[in-house]
Design brief:
The protein is α/β, with parallel strands linked by helices. The protein is 42% helix and 17% strand. Strands 5-6-7-2-1-8-9-12-13 form a 9-stranded mixed beta sheet, sandwiched between helices. It has a 6-stranded parallel beta sheet with strand order 16-15-14-17-18-19, with helices on both faces. Bound molecules: pyridoxal-5'-phosphate.
């Protein structure tokens, strides 16, 4: 069966990009043709990818970003390899008696068009070597290179500083580097998507030393060719491991004794944070939004503050935006064939007309209902939203800082807003395994809804939040709610899916939403929790009011798009990364 991505890719009639040099020219970086080639590709290491069309299910935004980065590279014909584990078990959510349950489903790379290449070995002091099966899937100018074995476990299995996690990380870094050699590729640059991928840079360093380079020269070389992308705000939250764990799990994979000595010297009180090692081995470092790059507080081994550049995340427009809307952006020359905003995108957005926008939103609603038909709410029933109703949505991982419970603090107010405006509220999101506090919060939100005759009909928690549901809500709902505690969201990308699909956004000024200041979205702000809570209900009322007046609606949607289109564009993100990695400093 055709996946919905295949369908989208066929629907959009972008002119074909002749070859990658055309994109390099468009971003004024002609010289990249010499630096990036099929044999010397851009290599992206990540513990997580969220690309179910290709069989790999992630946990959240980090994986969505990785998948989108590869898709953008494919569209632009950039030679690109994504190195990542293929977890053979994935977690799904269901709701039973208003409580979250997790089920594990087994998957195999063979079932998703991956080709088996060979095995590589990962060494451990106390155990026989683990044999990782390397699988590959080529997609245009890009490919996935994956590793796994039957006991590899699922994504984020166990403790973040436990032996098994370290084994998974070592497998990605050392195993992935061996896999690159297996297919004869030498990275032009290595991008480390978070510090859990650092062993890729260590493996490269070890190889250079083995080939006769002096350790310090090799470090300089690796630093120049490695980019560290940080998504975590505080260094205290970074995982760390003991010297004993390194001796057992990491060092048996390193040949150079000089390198082992150098790494040993980075331990403090018998412990080493992977972020410390990463900071030493990557010259270019970035945060994933302007605010995040500014507030990320990291120290290097000498205690000096680390400077992060900002490259705000973007999304793959073809994946997340309704084909008809994307078609309109192309036709009206709001974006070009690369997916970059055109020189006069602002004027062209201003020419959009509200009737057309409303017609496109109706199509989006049909897509949403199609997906909802296959899905279940908290009572195991499938839901359909009437064409003339308004829909609010809150779709994000159920974690504390995202505050999914907030609109349910005052059910009286919520009821009134939904009733007065013929509105529905769709909620979706997974509680992280083992997060008992948020699990209880979800129970309590679902109980509040259960105990109210009106809310029971109008508020639907759709089970097993995933990218299919995320996309359906982005295209088919009207008003998105995004209220992370200011300062805690590194970037967030689901608000970009909403803005790209011409929705109204209610948001705190956090993550990528704060790249525009003041934001043109309906802002939730306040000096304390009560004020913020008040602001949420006020902005929900205001959004409904705007929806009742075409002039206001047109103005609000256009203002948001003018401000955020360059941020939303995944091609813009790729341009920024190429600039950061290969630009003159
Ligand atoms: C887009 C998306 C995300 C990213 O969401 P943020 O909360 O904005 O980081 C996470 N999970 C899924 C399934 C998504 O589609």
């Amino acid at each position: 069966m055709e996946s919905y991505y295949d369908k989208i890719n066929k629907t959009i009639k972008t002119e074909d990009i002749e070859d990658v040099s055309e994109f390099y020219e468009a971003i004024n970086r002609k010289n990249l043709t010499k630096k990036l080639s099929d044999d010397r590709p851009y290599v992206y290491f990540t513990m997580e990818v969220y690309d179910k069309g290709n069989g790999i299910k992630g946990g959240g935004g980090l994986g969505v970003l990785a998948a989108d980065t590869r898709r953008v590279a494919e569209t632009l014909e950039i030679p690109f390899i994504c190195v990542t584990p293929f977890y053979r078990s994935e977690i799904h959510q269901s709701i039973v008696a208003l409580d979250q349950r997790e089920t594990i489903i087994n998957v195999r790379p063979e079932d998703y068009g991956f080709e088996y290449l060979d095995d590589v070995e990962i060494f451990n002091r106390d155990m026989p070597p683990a044999r990782l099966n390397i699988f590959q899937k080529i997609l245009g100018s890009t490919r996935f290179l994956t590793m796994g074995e039957s006991n590899f476990g699922e994504l984020y299995a166990g403790d973040g500083s436990g032996d098994h996690r370290l084994y998974q990380e070592v497998s990605l870094g050392f195993g992935g580097y061996k896999a690159l050699k297996m297919i004869g590729k030498k990275p032009s640059v290595i991008q480390l998507n978070e510090t859990a991928t650092i062993f890729a840079a260590v493996a490269r360093l070890d190889e250079l030393v083995k080939n006769g380079m002096n350790l310090y020269e090799a470090i300089v070389y690796v630093r120049k060719h490695t980019l560290y992308t940080n998504h975590t705000l505080v260094q205290a939250a970074e995982s760390e491991f003991s010297y004993e764990q390194f001796t057992k799990i990491v060092f048996p994979n390193i040949e150079s004794s000089a390198l082992i000595r150098w790494i040993s010297g980075l331990f403090r009180n018998d412990r080493l944070k992977l972020s410390t090692l990463t900071i030493e081995l990557a010259e270019a470092k970035n945060g994933v939004s302007r605010l995040h790059a500014r507030v990320a507080d990291y120290r290097d081994i000498n205690g000096d503050k680390v400077k992060f550049r900002a490259v705000t995340n973007g999304i793959d427009l073809k994946t997340w935006i309704l084909p008809d809307i994307l078609g309109l952006y192309l036709e009206k020359e709001i974006i070009d064939k690369f997916g970059l905003p055109t020189d006069n995108f602002k004027e062209n957005i201003d020419k959009l007309d509200i009737e057309k926008i409303k017609e496109l939103k109706k199509k989006g609603r049909i897509e949403l209902n199609k997906v909802l038909k296959k899905r279940k709410n908290q009572y195991g029933k499938s839901v359909q939203i009437p064409e003339n109703a308004l829909v609010f949505d809150f779709k994000r991982r159920f974690v504390d800082y995202k505050r999914p419970w907030m609109p349910f603090e005052d059910t009286e107010k919520l009821r009134k807003i939904l009733r007065d405006n013929n509105a529905y509220y769709i909620l979706a999101g997974k509680v992280h395994q083992g997060d008992s506090r948020m699990r209880a919060t979800l129970n309590s939100v679902l109980s509040k809804i259960e105990s109210d005759d009106f809310l029971r009909e109008r508020v639907h928690f759709i089970q097993d939040y995933d990218e299919e549901l995320g996309r359906a809500l982005a295209v088919g709902s009207d008003i998105a709610i995004n209220v992370p505690i200011v300062g805690l969201e590194a970037c967030g990308t689901s608000f970009m899916k909403d803005l790209g699909n011409l929705k109204l956004l209610i948001s705190t000024a956090d993550g990528g939403a704060a790249d525009i200041s003041p934001t043109s979205a309906l802002e939730v702000s306040g000096i304390n929790y009560e004020q913020e809570l008040n602001a949420i209900y006020k902005q929900m009322e205001k959004a409904c009011y705007i929806y009742n007046n075409d002039t206001l609606l047109q103005k609000q949607i256009k203002n948001q798009l003018v401000d955020y289109l360059p941020i939303v564009s995944g091609a813009r993100m790729m341009k920024d990364y190429l600039q950061l990695i290969f630009g003159q400093k």
